[in-house]
Prior knowledge:
Elements: H1 3-8, H2 10-20, H3 26-32, H4 36-47, H5 51-64
Amino acid sequence: MNWDQVEGNWKQFTGQAQSKWGKLTDDEVAQAEGDRERLEGLIQERYGDSKEEVRRQVDEWLDNL
């Protein structure tokens, strides 16, 4: 699956994103609106991980969808 598919169907993936990154609120996940950079930024803020680590996590999540 590629990010364009996720972005186009974001509402379908919000629950899975919420499960993966439980510290994010429903509002934060919805606020990302399928924008990968925005999602990564929110994850960075909540978890304090590096940009590279967050990108790796998002890539891994995408591979498992």
